[in-house]
Amino acid sequence: MRLLWAAVLVAAANAAQAGASSPRFCDQAQAHDARTQDRLLRMAAVVREQLDASGQAVALVARAGLNLARFGLRYSHAGVSLKASANAPWSVRQLYYACDEGRPRLFDQGLAGFVVGSDDPAVGYVSIVLLPADAAATLEQAALDNALALRLLAGRYSANAFAFGLRYQNCNQWVVELLAAAWGGLADGDDLRARAQQWLAGHGYDPRPVEVGSHALMFAGPFVPWIHYDDHPLDDRYALHFRTSVPRTIEAFVHQRLPGAQRIEVCHDGRQIVVHRGWTPVGEGCVAAAGDAVLPLD
Fold first, then answer.
1. Could you report how far apart the first and last alpha carbons of the chain are, in Å?
2. How far apart are CA 210 and CA 213, in angstroms?
3. Which of 47, 228, 243, 244 is 20 to 30 A from 6, alpha carbon to alpha carbon?
């Protein structure tokens, strides 16, 4: 379930350059030794403690895996963590790409699995965004509405889906369209995705282009079934950048629309867990700053 758009591009580039066919990147289980597993589970416990201590029932969450500095990204995969989830408290409702079926699905994943699912066990980050009461209540109601949540699910997946396109959808696009349905009070219906995107465009959602920086990636489509370019405007394709929904764009939109929203980052570097509060990012490499809580792992 590693739907990390930029990370997928790395795999796509390698596949395209090697002439490989359809690398199996998603839905792979990441094997960890006992010590690493213990560290990741302890980090998941800290994330759960932060959610419990918030006094809220819903949060936007995002995780990081591979080093995505080449794309200017830390976080890649977002979901909605729900205290009242029928799966388990604080399970994360999210979109993932089902490789065997070749299509997107919704999945309620336990919080520990969401955190442990990071691709790089040496360092990891989880972002938590807590919303003001009214916004949180409407989001919780929408996220727990199975019919509405599924109505927002597209039939075709693209990791780099155009943020204002209906042909495909990626994991983060489903999240932000859910926000639109909730906060826009949009009624269910066959055209719900179109109306959600119209609402987002009219309320300041402006995804910053992700710079690809390599023509090699433009030829990855034939080798990777979850990469597509035909939904993006020609000017963007020529400029080698894509306006796609990533956690950074979602969080920027939430912060702009809801100044009272709060953000918490929980990270680890294999030696310690750092809990950092505020909209400025925690130091690269999980370096603690003044005021951050630091919990030793060893």
1. 29
2. 9
3. 47
**Domain coordinates in residue numbering, the chain:** 5-296
Cα separations in angstroms, 280 against 43, 143, 248: 21, 27, 12
Model confidence pLDDT, tens digit, residues 233-254: 777 676 667 889 999 999 999 9
CB atoms within 10 A of CB 185: 10
Q: pLDDT tens digits, residue range 142-199?
A: 999 999 999 999 999 988 899 999 999 999 999 999 999 999 999 999 999 999 999 9
pLDDT for 6 equals: 47
> What pTM did the predictor assign?
0.88
Supply 91's token pair. Answer: 């399970």
